[in-house]
């Protein structure tokens, strides 16, 4: 393996690199034994993007302690001023957009066009929340008593622990970090190890924007150390909120752990997102949407298309269109103009191959010349670049999936889409809800009545009409239900409920005790009063 200008990435705790911090850490917290791994470019596996210093559980506890120490002073900064810091962060991201996008592409293999869109998502998020710093964050409420004032306030929670996946290594973390910081919290961020260079770049930009030392902390650890560290930090009362984006099984663990401390985490988990095609669907538009939703980012989005549920009258015509679209699609080097690049990491490649093994005799795979990894033994026409260099996989659509198939019920996190048919809308909605996820969904139809019936029947937190299951705007709530999450929402004003607690204030100005409900004086009403009936002929 050759090193191509690798960056050494380590934890940032209390504003200092972990190596320096460990030598002078807080009393009672011993330095961790560290190990160094490499973050490699999945499109060119011989290229090391970063050397990553992984810490143990105590680094997480130390970071939470540093955040706790810094949080109160940050909360005392007026919200409009905190908003200006968020605005500066957004401007710095915008000024460094191309460098950050190219780093995203190098480290996780996302096509450059998508990486640029991901960076723009951060800018949009900062634009929104910069203004939130100047919006009223509480209310004045009328009292039922004279000479009494009632108020409500949003207060920061304290320390927010953020744990994110690497498929969106900078955009999704910003959904947590930006509103958490705006509302006066301090954060501890544990990114995916294979996206550590992207995380370090984001923390550098936060620091340059004026976020004080200790307010935004970065820790790098594997899953086992993170679990132990989070548990210890919660037990020590150092973490007030957990935001987690990742798999459903890990989300269940995080939810159970937080529940022991009477905390409600923000869980954004997986998806098995359906696309329903009504008899009047625009099939060309549907095929283009399915191509992007199913195979963009190599199918490694939580909002990736899981199954197309096509009315039996349009099933075959849609299949022909999707086949043609897949055959035209260019796959390969993410620095080029491609539909998708490699899978994120060897671990995800192995998991995807397990899902490919779930294809059964009653299934009809189509869309590519082969299944599995693209290479000399199984080439793909129109491939851009060197298929042997990275973790490239053929796209596949599996027709004939059944409701009890693993391919129908489980998130596959790779370039594979299921296809099935239905007879009536009730059956379509039942099939769409069957996997138990509830993140995103889509329906193609020109009939508003069909849209309304679908929207009311589907359990997904997000519904799209005549467009993809993927794609989120910064000012709409993002999140799901069931196996996709616990109902928490990110993005837009709704995420403020995740990052703040409500506090009410009753201010007595009368100089005496006034008891609500008991001392209220309401003028008497004569409820027996009736208007006289008008005289004259009845109509």
From TrEMBL:
Q: Which residues form the active site?
A: 268
Record keywords: NAD, Oxidoreductase
Q: Which InterPro entries match?
A: Ald_DH/histidinol_DH, Ald_DH_C, Ald_DH_CS_GLU, Ald_DH_N, Aldehyde_DH_dom, ALDH7A1-like
Molecular function terms from GO: aldehyde dehydrogenase (NAD+) activity
PROSITE patterns for this protein:
ALDEHYDE_DEHYDR_GLU
Question: Which segments constitute the Aldehyde dehydrogenase domain?
Answer: 35-504
- Oxidoreductase recorded as keyword: yes
Q: What class of enzyme is it?
A: oxidoreductase
Q: How does it assemble?
A: Homotetramer.
Query: Which family is it part of?
Result: Belongs to the aldehyde dehydrogenase family.
Protein name as catalogued: aldehyde dehydrogenase (NAD(+))
The organism encoding this protein is Parafrankia colletiae
Upper classification of the source organism reads: Bacteria, Bacillati, Actinomycetota, Actinomycetes, Frankiales
